[in-house]
Prior knowledge:
heterodimer, A: 198 residues, alpha+beta, Jelly Rolls, 2 domains, 4-stranded antiparallel sheet, 8 strands, 22% strand, B: 200 residues, 9 helices
Amino acid sequence: MEKALGQYISKYADLTDEDLNLIRTRIVVREFSKRQLLIDAGEHEQYLNLLVKGVLRKYFYKGREEVITHLAKEGDLICASVSFFSGQPSQYAIEALEPVTVYSISRENLEELYGLSPRIARIARLVITNLYLDKERWEQDHIQYDIRQRFVNFVHNNADLIQRVPQKYIASYLNIKPETFSRLKHLLKKAPLLATLS
Amino acid sequence: MQHQEKNTYWNLLHDFLRRFIDLSEEEFIEWKPYFELRHVNKKKILVHKGEVEDYVNIVAQGLVRKYLKVKKGDVTLQIAPEGHMVHSEISFHLRKPSEVIVETIEPTWLISISYQNLQALYNRFPLAEKLGRLFATEMFIIKDKRFFEILKKSTREIFLDYMKTHPQMLQRVPQKYIASYLNIKPETFSRLKHLLKKKV
């Protein structure tokens, strides 16, 4: 467990063995089967999760349509974060697309850690700052790049997800109509980089 | 500038910080030298595209907008009045050239802290860590709300909600900036404004 934890956290800063131990003793390992929900819309998020195995999708309902806002893979931090931090009911649901293992920590335990280690408190600040920069980046990407470019960027950065996630979910995540998605896929078949799509 | 006004701005900073943490008058006096007051004329660019953002700013007086330049024109990402924070966030935190441009709309007083001073503050006061964490959490929740609005709400809802929560903006901000911020075409914006008048 320390290895997966250490790998994720070392993106931000170095923790001591003692820090990792403090975290480890406050973590719950949770497993979910394919299609199982980690949380449904309307529920309160209890955990912040580090995804160590599997793929998850996070989505909300726009009428009856599901709009996907996050496709998470190993190493990603995922939860109904606004609900987790604000205590409000979640507007999002999270579903396992494969059998999933997550390391989860409750808000109470997380808050306790801030007091126990200044290094953990610092990493928490950096992780949360990154969550907010991701939102900013999402908005800027939608303004700066057209559908085609967003598609290419996604494929470039997530070659593995293309094989693991149903196409309709990727189309929803990219905010692209399914028919447009198929057309783009057809166009890009020629490019060697994108051969995994065909 | 009058001594009185300066004090008002520093009080505004103290109030801003106290929204997140318990900071006594004595502690605030120790924190103050890390911040600076900056005056900027109207329509002055604070951060150009390609520059690395050096500051976090809180608007003490005035109005600032943040926008992207794209082929079809400027797209406004934020219009910040008094009490709001504005800067090129991604550039500031990741120390990368800025994609966005930050520019004043009115003559503006900013309460600012430089990247270097902010790191020094974090290193010296554990309470600053907590401030940074809680502040980032609030920003994340605000950004998620906007993200949600873009994907979920109708144009009409977006317009009416904004006018309700920002009643003074129509008088202070050129309409085209608000329309751009709300991602509404100027002609649609005018039509919606007409509807609003009838209601009032």
